[in-house]
């Protein structure tokens, strides 16, 4: 059991966390959280690691799954991880549906040249999940200081940035899917926001 170090503004808070080593990686909008850039930009992994495949431009107006209420819009909930996987692939991203080792779904993906995972929470027997977390860890040779995390939180919204017990930085973002879900357009906008913030975070930590 380690203490997850959350840095909010210029204050520090220690939050107990059971660190999941299975989540560790060796690879590394207009929402007030960063300037929207092209959602298909390139990035880089740590030296000697395999580069995630480049993202491709998304097919125009392509939809997957049943539209909600006959209105033509797809509703994303935590009940269909395969739909989320399929949509990510249609939008040009690498995506593979697996599990977290505890019976809950997990999606492995890559964005802005960085591998990340989508974890499902609030699940009932591995199904009908109520929220997801997008999470990426960055393995730095000498770790990084709390001042860098504090600076991030003083300027950005929507994400949590914290350090593990090796002083390596992590970035995560939650998406609530409870209470009827969200439209695919809103979900796609969240993915674009995540990409913009991951790209900014790489600059923040000099990745």
Verbal overview:
The chain has about 210 residues and is α+β, with helices and mostly antiparallel strands. It has one domain. About 20% of the residues lie in helices and about 30% in strands. An eight-stranded antiparallel beta sheet has the order 2-1-8-9-7-6-5-4. The chain starts with a strand and ends with a helix. Residues about 1-70 have low confidence and may be disordered.
> Helicity level, as a percent range?
10-25%
* H/E element sequence: EEEHEEEEHEEEH
SS-based class: alpha+beta
Shape, please? Answer: globular
Short description:
By secondary structure, the protein is an alpha+beta fold.
List the helices and strands and how they pair.
Elements: E1 2-8, E2 11-17, E3 75-76, H1 81-90, E4 95-99, E5 105-111, E6 114-121, E7 131-137, H2 146-155, E8 160-163, E9 169-176, E10 182-183, H3 184-204
Antiparallel strand pairs: 1-2, 1-8, 3-10, 4-5, 5-6, 6-7, 7-9, 8-9
Key attributes of the depicted protein:
single chain; 207 residues; alpha+beta; eight-stranded antiparallel sheet; two-stranded antiparallel ribbon; 10 strands; globular; disordered N terminus
